[in-house]
Fold each of these.
Amino acid sequence: MSDVLKRRFREQIMVMFGREPKKPVQIAERAVRAHQLKRMTNKADLQATKAHMRAHEVKSTKWRNRRWATLLISNLLFTVSFYFDIQLLEGALTASRFIGFHLIDLNSALQVMLAHKHIITNLLIGTGTVLVLWILLGGRSFCSWVCPYHLLAEWAEKLHLYLVKKKLVTDQTIDRRLRSVFWIIFAVLAAATGYTVFEAISPTGILSRALIYGPGLALLWVLALLVFEVFFSKRAWCRYACPIGLTYGVVGIISPLRIKYKLDGCFHEGDCRKVCLVPHVLDVVIKGRAVDIEVPIGPDCTRCGLCVDTCPTGSLTFEVKGLSKLL
């Protein structure tokens, strides 16, 4: 990795913790040439090329469909296992056993260890298994490919955007650093009270348990969050509060699975940022922001694939570091 990309990677980590993306101070020479070439391109020719691509563009939902199917199957597998008592996948998303292997959500495990102030063997084993899994798959892939609240929030966002378009509501943004503050608050509360406070209000755990064991009053809290996101701020819980995303984002720092951006073919039309669930990770697609001709997207990316489906030029692709791009 070049020095420019290393610097970029460090900045992406800071963005994950809440800092706003900013213009790069150092750009690789080959990227400078690419930016200059784009500026020299005749605007009329560029607009004609864009119009031609728009006219012949085929909308893809390949990665979205794969993601939704994976999310629904993984959650319903808990329900089926419990209902038919087949002991295939026992427990819930926060803590479970898959064919005898313990699986513990990383953030839940951290909360338990802070609350009880000692390490349980099964907890350590389950945490290790999940840690390896999400290192390989990309930390925040958990959010978009497994978390049931993420799917509901994604659907709520569509309703929110419709209301914004009709000028019935406005989208309010909140300082993203608040998520890091909440991570610290929940950790301190667990250590101070001996109780996993976050688990009591986590919509991820509430929905997982409701799917398996039946609905309860806690679903009213989930409904309140969705109403807030529909009428005030889209995806507010995931973007500004949930410590699970930050925990898995840290894991994603060393993940080989990522989305890569290629500067040469990009027209900077911005469609990818419009559909992105965490658009701050795609600041690289803004004209003049790419520090090299190929730039991996940062660890706060959920690997949802919406940008890959949307990009008309194929400038955003899934790939495993060191290997070819994924289909």
Amino acid sequence: MITSLHLLNFKPFANQLLEFKKLTLFSGLNSTGKSSVMQSLLLLRQSYQQGLLPEKGLALNGDFVNVGTAQDALFEGAKDDFIGFNIVWENNIEGVWRFKYDKEVVDVLNIASEKVTSEVYKSNLFGNNFHYLQAERIGPRSFNEMSDYQVRQLNQLGIKGEYAAHFLAINGRKVIPNSSLSHPEVKLKTQRQKDQSTAQSMDLIDQVEAWMGEISPGTRLKIDAKSDVDLMCFQYSYGDSNPYRATNVGFGISYTLPIIVAALASPPSTMILIENPEAHLHPKGQVKIGELLALAASGGVQVVIETHSDHVLNGIRLAVHAGKIDPKDVQLHYFQRQKQEEQMITDVVSPKIDRNGRIDRWPDGFFDEWDNSLEILLEPAVEE
């Protein structure tokens, strides 16, 4: 598990140290640096997968992230010609990377220095126990992609969730690795034990359906492989209804499915990065996603969330209040812009959450828009 990340001269950060816990949540106004923190981890991963690390350099553009040019990556007010990433994992495993800035470089920053232990490249950041789901996930499709390489060999869902259907087709009847994520209303469906109505199925597909029911009640999944054209057909039904094409059930289902699959299917020590898990979801669904991700983190999965949703935050707070996750395992970071010496810089405030789910401070802009609006609404309306 990553315990801290130190960024030097990278995008909006001159010198920023961030603490990580089992569940780490980034929030803040647009363009304040939340995504840049995610990108720093993704740049290291994609550089390793492209064979540039440990010896050659940093791939600015690739399958996970496209930063642009070296000038796009360097902090605008940098006084040194390098970009630096320092990561500390538990058990004091540390990785230190310095990449030489060259304004002529388009794709790869040459490595200036590197200090790593032998365990760094064995961590989840660089291995198969890793999922990244970007903000722009795939919406409803009549057919989804198949990839035996990504699903069977690398255990991946795709950064847009494009392989979620294939992943479920392959792994749907496997038992979820963390029993604490079991949905309380799942009933055992096997014919062999059909009379044991109180038994619960721990199969991935049944658990996914149950958690999807928190988003859209009664959801059932039907997956058919069209192997001759390397496509998966995804349909949904509700109770005893006929199956519906995915294109007829809305964006919220398709956007949420890979998040639920990643949370339920990941064994302890997996790392999951998720951007905007609230996209296209109604408030109740956002709360439940926050709760599910908190449960995954309590079970040993490291979850990093970027969100604008107070409902996702409240789902985590409710999980803390219910004793489902220790408040010491939750880290909140709020990103804000401040003017300093004629330059706008990013400042990070880190509120704490207590055992009751209460937060010790609410900096200006930290999920306070409803309170601001309520104050106005409580005032008498202006008479015309």
Amino acid sequence: MTGRVLVVGGTGPTGPDVVRLLLDRGADVTVLHRGLHEPDARHEPEGLPDVPHMHADPHFADHLRAALGDRSFDTVVATYGRMRVLAEVFAGRCERFVAVGGNPVHAGHLNRHATFPTGMRLLAGEDSPRARPGAGDRDRFATRVREAEEAVLAAGARGAFAATYLRYPMVYGRRSMLGF
């Protein structure tokens, strides 16, 4: 992947590694994040590559539009934020939109009682049951993840950009929110 690439969430758990790989492949990378996790030697002992940063809250369309101005990118790699909002804002501003989500889209991932037999199917496939509205907060979150994925792919189907949606099963490593 080369050209102008914007990494949304580029300072989070996986962002610095994504940035490094893009730079190694010759991309012109910019990072967009809220500004709450500025990299420093304490958190990034090997150093985060020196790339331009844009500060905006990727949860809100108005914040994003204000920060972007009239800029566009060849590729947007979205590793954080509300994917539905990001897909809306970047429609027509990029050729490729790569969204990174997770497995909560599958029924039983967050609420094992949402499926029978109990829990998410191991090695879930694209045709596995998806999360749907239920009574608990976990079901609501999983349903929102599913809706975000559907919004990105629908924008791609409308021709807003070439859409790719990746699901991390779990994030491991020194920047994992789980502390692995």
Amino acid sequence: MLNTPLEQPEFYQKNRQILMDMLPENSMVIVPSGVEKIRNRDVEFPFRAESDFIYLTGFGEPDSVLVLLKKAKTVASHLFVRAKDPEQETWQGRRLGVEAAPSTLQLDCAHEIDMLDDEILGLLDNMESVYVSFSQSLDFLGTVHQWIYALKEQGRKGIEAPKQVCDLDVHLHEMRVIKSDTEIKRLRKAATISVQGHLAAMKSVQSSVFEFQVQADLEAEFLRLGSPRVAFNSIVASGENACILHYTENRSEIKKGDLVLVDAGAEWQGYAGDITTTFPASGFFSAEQAQLYSLVLAAQQAAIDAIKPKATYDIVHQASIKVLTQGLLDLGLLQGDLNTVLKDEGYKRFFMHGTGHWLGMDVHDVGAYKQNQKWRTFKPGMVVTVEPGLYVSGEHQDVDKKWHNIGIRIEDDILVTSIGHEVLTTGLPRTVKEIETWMRQDKEQVTIEVS
């Protein structure tokens, strides 16, 4: 995350208040931003703060820790940050600093991160419970236990250490599942930028020789439109590579008869877009490619149509696999009757992943999919992806070779509304005819511009 704080500090202040309202008296929340990590030698990986930390601060510097306290029905916010250091800032970039943090981020007070061990002991005194993310802050849990142990050692002085360390995820991650109006606006923007990047990729493939060239044009469009980074590592997979679900090498030559699968999304103000498009490198689908593509698209539409308030989460997957399985039976790639193949999960030979996931600050966003061992129901404000696929590789030796090396996935981002759903990722050609027409028209435009 950029060192510059994100817009609307009141949004993050409200998030903090809502979270603390859910917790009992004498509670403390500790959320670290994370630390920079070395890629090799003295080169760091690009730093992006933990999403929980951004959600509560709008801030993204490394080596920062947010501490929230609830005592006597009052919430106090403390932020530990790196001190201003002209020499370090000359080399590594500007820091917000202790003095500017409270007013900029609408926090009560700030401290130098080097003072964390000393200051935290006083803040922990007489707190009943400490809340830390068990999934995001595992490395930090040991430090928390060391602080509690240090306080217990001072019991004779009348100091009381917290009695329990609790999982913050139960509250904070469930809070993040339902998106506010501010978050929905940011997700819409991330979706809009992501769409434009995918259109750039479809245009790029007509003049590109290698997958990485398509990736370059895709991500350049993200940057051009203001996205500071990709939401996840971009997948540009042609031909047989599209049958590898998380293929990110993006180094192969694109052959004229290949389908190209692009799974990529832009990040905007901390929120992710996530789209998958599949299109022919030549601009035209083969008969087999068109049949499987249309089947996946029909499965996706059936899944999207199922999304509405009070519908259970699993209905999306059930809708997609029913359409896919029937289609595979009709095309002869599977044998048997529909109910038996569904029961035996025979479709998993060609569709081995789920149909979607939560989307938000993380591309695979936080939040439980089941509650009390039952699939949870959709509520307005939830955002989910829908991404059925089919993957017929050369390893399927019992399948006619005409189907080999066809990998297809179609993915869009869906907001649950009060009356149904809204597709956030609109503006892409999706049917076989729409894709072929769009690529033909775009090719003609490119030819005219070049001449």
